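Exercise 7b. Backbone tokens:
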């Protein structure tokens, strides 16, 4: 029982370190990378606090250096899913009974471990396992992960503090119970922080969790699990398993105690799972909470009043950072004909200077794409654009998978605003540009709004305030995160709550109170201090 209304420490964003030559953080990171590269890691599942080794091992290697072995993980099967569900069920009572401040302390400690001894472990494992450069790893694995943990504690207390009014003689209370059952967290490859947030956010609210990460992000997922354990997370609260997605899904979605699904990944997978949950709805104790943040076809629209250099910079950073493998990455742009030559000349200058290679060489702006299927798909889209009458490749267009999965940053110019790469998410370093007639802004906005099924991120570049207002209003349903004169990537927890609508997800805004509310099932308690003892109401009195 808590014996005080405790206040949490002030919530602040984790500072982004610079990694300048000669800095201590750069030296520490390089040392951690060297250490990880010099020994192979043996990675078990974690079920109920036990390290589980199936003996069925799978090799892990850097996408940019495919001959090198980072380690092996132990792949699981259906039996491990059932063991994980049992472990979660056994942990539930004890975890729910723990005071909120004890739960908060575990996750605040995890955040401080990230600021300290775990920072370079998370950064190095993300750089090597997912092929991110130092800055992309730092803003994700270190800063965003620490921010999720600290801000979610803040939102948890804000939720608990939200209490109903009480009339005289009555005390109304709202109890924010965890869900009755377990939560399933299914996580993507591209953000270590998302992989960590999806299981930890429901756990913070008192839930027990089965966590299945992407097979291409198991190296950093292992470090996250070690972090949670070192921070004091009790056994069985989060259970990490490496069975194939469909195998886990079959067992989880058939279980009567399945209570919530926390997903980030592609739209097709989410929609299939939603159907499975719908078909099984009669099997569950409660209606499950379904939270899914999915794909995007994110845009920049520039107006003739824009700053051309700022547009070019936003296109390059927005489209090519982390090889375009951000759900928020710019992959289609609508640029005004009157400013196109100027924007193009800035692009020409900058594109020449982009370096691509291993993240171990800190000069590289870009690294490899995540795996061979992704590489092959991107290469085939580039080839298709090379041969299509509506398109011309104006930058890049080459690819090579001899030693790693490298795709050149590629810009396609199209005369057809409905060309495939203007509509479909490719998830790679391919940007398609459509140059519109300056006088056809309204038509272009209509096309932009209707071209794709997604509505995740988008940006307008303009100096004219009336135009900024007009476009912001006209595109109000085209993006869940909308940016004015800024690239549409790099949302910061607590500053730009993140998520999209339409085909891009349930828009529950990761790292916000809206998301945390999905992991509780409130119970209203009314207490009457002096209950009535006569059933008759005063109006019934004799005249
Ligand atoms: N909106 C957002 O906030 C956001 C953030 C990051 C990534 N994304 C999206 O995620 C996608 C990229 O990530 P990804 O390639 O890891 O996504 P993905 O959908 O391929 O995989 C996500 C997870 O689902 C599992 N999975 C895949 N197929 C499955 C199936 N049939 N049954 C059960 N599980 C299955 C994977 O193993 C992985 O753990 C992109 O579409 C991107 O836009 C969205
Ligand atoms: N929140 C991240 C994107 C996460 C998806 O991949 C951003 O804003 O760039």
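Sequence design result:
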């Amino acid at each position: 029982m808590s014996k005080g209304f405790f206040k949490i420490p002030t919530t602040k964003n984790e500072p982004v370190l610079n990694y300048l030559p000669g800095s201590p953080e750069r030296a520490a990171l390089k040392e951690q990378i060297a250490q990880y590269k010099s020994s192979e890691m043996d990675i078990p599942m974690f079920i109920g606090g036990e390290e589980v080794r199936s003996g069925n091992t799978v090799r892990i290697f850097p996408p940019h250096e495919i001959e090198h072995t980072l380690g092996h993980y132990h792949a699981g099967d259906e039996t491990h899913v059932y063991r994980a569900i049992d472990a979660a069920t056994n942990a539930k009572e004890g975890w729910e009974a723990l005071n909120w401040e004890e739960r908060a302390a575990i996750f605040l400690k995890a955040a401080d471990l990230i600021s300290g001894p775990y920072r370079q472990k998370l950064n190095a494992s993300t750089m090597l396992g997912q092929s991110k450069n130092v800055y992309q790893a730092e803003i994700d694995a270190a800063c965003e992960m620490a921010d999720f943990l600290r801000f979610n504690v803040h939102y948890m207390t804000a939720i608990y503090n939200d209490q109903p009014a009480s009339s005289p003689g009555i005390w109304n209370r709202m109890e924010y119970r965890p869900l009755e059952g377990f939560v399933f967290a299914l996580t993507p490859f591209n953000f270590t922080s998302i992989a960590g947030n999806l299981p930890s956010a429901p756990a913070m609210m008192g839930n027990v969790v089965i966590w299945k990460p992407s097979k291409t992000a198991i190296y950093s997922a292992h470090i996250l699990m070690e972090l949670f354990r070192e921070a004091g997370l009790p056994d069985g609260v989060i259970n990490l398993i490496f069975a194939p997605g469909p195998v886990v899904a079959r067992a989880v979605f058939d279980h009567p105690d399945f209570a919530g699904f926390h997903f980030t990944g592609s739209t097709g997978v989410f929609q299939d799972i939603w159907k499975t949950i719908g078909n099984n709805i009669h099997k569950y104790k409660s209606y499950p909470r379904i939270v899914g943040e999915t794909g995007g076809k994110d845009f920049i629209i520039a107006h003739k009043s824009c700053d051309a250099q700022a547009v070019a910079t936003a296109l390059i950073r927005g489209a090519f950072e982390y090889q375009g493998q951000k759900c928020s990455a710019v992959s289609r742009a609508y640029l005004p004909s009157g400013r196109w030559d100027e924007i193009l000349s800035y692009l020409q200058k900058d594109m020449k200077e982009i370096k691509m290679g291993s993240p171990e060489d800190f000069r590289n702006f870009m690294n490899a794409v995540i795996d061979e299927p992704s590489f092959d798909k991107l290469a085939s889209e580039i080839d298709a654009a090379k041969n299509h009458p509506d398109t011309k490749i104006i930058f890049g267009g080459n690819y090579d998978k001899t030693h790693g999965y490298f795709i050149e940053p590629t810009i396609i110019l199209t005369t057809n605003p409905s060309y495939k790469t203007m509509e479909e998410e490719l998830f790679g370093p391919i940007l398609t540009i459509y140059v519109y007639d300056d006088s056809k802004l309204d038509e272009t906005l209509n096309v932009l709004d209707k071209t794709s099924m997604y509505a995740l991120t988008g940006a307008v570049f303009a100096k004219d305030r009336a135009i900024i207002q007009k476009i912001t209003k006209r595109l109000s349903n085209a993006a869940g995160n909308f940016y004015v004169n800024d690239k549409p990537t790099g949302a910061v927890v607590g500053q730009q709550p993140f998520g999209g609508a339409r085909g891009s997800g349930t828009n529950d805004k990761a790292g916000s109170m809206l998301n945390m509310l999905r992991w509780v099932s409130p119970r209203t308690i009314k207490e009457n201090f002096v209950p009535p003892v006569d059933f008759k109401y005063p109006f019934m009195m004799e005249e």
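Instructor comment: Residues 134-161 form the longest helix (28 residues). The mean pLDDT is 98.
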